[in-house]
What does this fold into?
Amino acid sequence: MTPARRVVTLPPTVLGPDAVRFAREGQRRGADVLEIRTDLHAPDAVDAAALADVLPLLVSERGKPLPPAWVSAAWRVDRDLKDATGRQGSLEAPSGKLLASHHAERQLSTTEALRLWERELPPDALVKHVEPMMGPEHISTLLETQRLLIERFGPTRVTVLGMGAIALPARAVLARNNVLDYVAAGGTWAAAPGQRLLDDVVRELRGADRLTLDPPLRLGILGTSIVHSRSPRIHKQPFDRIDIPEDGPVETLVDSLLPHYAGFAVTSPFKLRLARHTRSPLEAINTLVRRGSKWESFNTDTHGARAVLERLGAKEAFVLGDGGATAALRTVAGEDGRVLRVLRRSDIGEPLTGAGVWTWPDRVPPPDSLRFERARVAVIAYGAPGRRVAAEISRRGGTPVMLGAAWFVAQARRQRQLWESAT
It folds into this structure.
């Protein structure tokens, strides 16, 4: 199977010469196609011919007409099956350039989706079908829609996409048989919710053989605000960064993905919820491993917790927060004869002394009353979040001890061993 061509969309704030620089940078990082859309750029905001000299250009009609200069420079011209009124849209495009698309306003059954595509198309037209995903279980419907559209149009023409806050793993699974893979270049802007990061997709293609008939089992990390996570860089590919809202349906999501994934790393804020969902005897878990028709759960954070407490070197310590990381610290402290004082936000009063561990995610603001008095405080986050936590500790009178990498590496080694045993 030939890998899907990676499409990045030009952000609306990137204009003129900056657009050409964006295209060159995208090409350098592994993008195959650049998309420009009429709802994002005015006709004279970009030089379509200059962009087409860098990457094949996909021009997409979204509400406003396509400029002739864009069509002339295009590799493909994206026109919707239906116009804004719901009637048949114009599929006019130069020979060999049509990408016929439809962006559904709601989830469709496979029967409804196929009915849309009964319209006669040129034999060389590409086909793109997009639906919002209201629930994770819709992945099975999208896969069936993809299979039947490929039967109808052939394996070199079809792309099926899900959209929404929980769509990323569905898009990762669909990408194996898609012709196009729409991905986010990075930063704060994405053309559609649920897009994977370009760098993550390129990493997968470099680390896994997409041409095999039996693809490698997928892995992923589940969490909120995990763009900084290094897990996709160090674990076996394919490995997905599944960033979903804190109140997202993570339980239904992991159940729906059981046929498609061998395991997951679980990070904040889902360690406690997924422990309950998998009926784990553990208070919190950070690892799921597929065993036949169910998930088996583990907490390799205990390996990270032991590394941190040993490096702190204190027999007594306070812990800020009482979530999944604290559960691991509590387990290790009990085994090693250490005394932990677990402090929730409402417990913060007098300035804290001695040694401690900060477990709150950096997206959670600490209480205003938090102060330290010559305390050494371990930071178990890493990267930019870890630096932000360290700055807070210093600002409040403490000395940060950067142990995020030690925690991460220790628990990740054990995760890798467990995933290698997945069925």
About this structure: Residues 5-214 form a domain with the TIM Barrel fold (CATH 3.20.20.70).
